[in-house]
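Narrative of activities, Objective 1.

The group set out to show that a structural description can be obtained from nothing but a protein's sequence at a throughput compatible with the screening campaign. Below is one input-output pair from the validation batch, recorded exactly as produced.
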Amino acid sequence: MKGEREMTNRSGSRSRTRAWWARVGVGSALAVTVLACAVDAGAATRPASSRPAARGHAATGKPIVVGYVNDDTGAVGAFPETTAGTEAAVKYVNAQLDGIHNRPIELVPCSDDATPAQAGSCATRVLQHNPVAILGGVDFATTASIPLFQKAGVPYIGGLAFTGPENTDPTSFQWNSITANFSVMPFYGVRYLHAKRISILYPAGVGTDLSLAQLMAGVAENVGLKKSDVTLVSYDATSPDMTAPIEAANKTSPSMIIGITSGPQCVTLAQARQELAVKATLFLPGGCFGKQLNAQAGSAYNGVYGGQATAVPGSPQLANKPAMKLFYKILQAYSPKTLSSPLISFAFFGYGDVINFRNVLMKLNPADITSQTIIAAFRHTVNQSNVLGPSFSCAHPPISQVRSLCTVASGMYVIRNGQSVYLGAYNPGPYIKHVPGIS
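Output recorded for this entry:
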């Protein structure tokens, strides 16, 4: 059955993220890599056993067909780790948790390549199997797929909300978004670090990045700063030297600098700040804090802050949490190769979506699990638990213009001695009045 359900080959070059940094706008990259914050598989406690603890029995009832689309390949970005985490979670739920009221989840995956043509094709293929819902993955081309799901009356649940229809579609329900990941940084800096002046660095010529900079500027002003206290500074995203951007950002003597950047440029930005002895606290997107980048940055990363909606496997406070330990056990049992991936947080992202989806559907009558009952169930969620993440409430979207976002709360981390120290979850929602590019 799995072979019949496989839509396309999910193999891809391990250099995919390197190509991504080079070929696309930094903001697009960051929108996804925020989820890869501080990934250090070795920092988390490894399971002693290769099998997850048994908590129930295998589901034997009528399958619940669920579609799934993810950018597993493609020049823009490829994230098979998300698929690995999703599939591992489905196997675990079906084998150990009695599925959903003894009904196993039958996952119908389709591998996208981040292009509208392939996204539309994937949507059409998945819908041929009559799924009751679609689990979102990392998908840059939802403008071509979600309209087809909406027309079919099939809800789109989870995934990562960029600036596409997943933010506003009435049958889309999201708890991970770039709106949350970027808004939380100026909110935290002004409210809790008492920043009086902010400079926001963004790559020139990329509309998404300018929108993110404007979003953060708006949040800072709504928290209490004056418009004149926030400066937006553009820079050349291809420049190997970040000295000039840091100097430009520091001209207004800010107490806080936020850099919209990614990959190796994160390191050079932090190093330039250190070499110039700039006193402003540096904030970088979560995707800047991977194992390799942390090692390259060394002391330049100490005291650097970042925001991320989902849990960070490498965070010392979360490594020994039962939910995080269970995640590692599930990967060990069903996708052991993913344990060594530098993008293991994408696996946690996919895993969490499946568990959240199951938790909501467990409230339904097993004989009446349809697209419509699932939509109704998610529309009525209030303070719904989220796997090691902020709870979400789809019944009361925090931003009226972006009704598909069930939460804009996000975790805050600070780098100390090469590790991401979890500071807690924060909600900038009341201070988001406008989302450039969406509302």
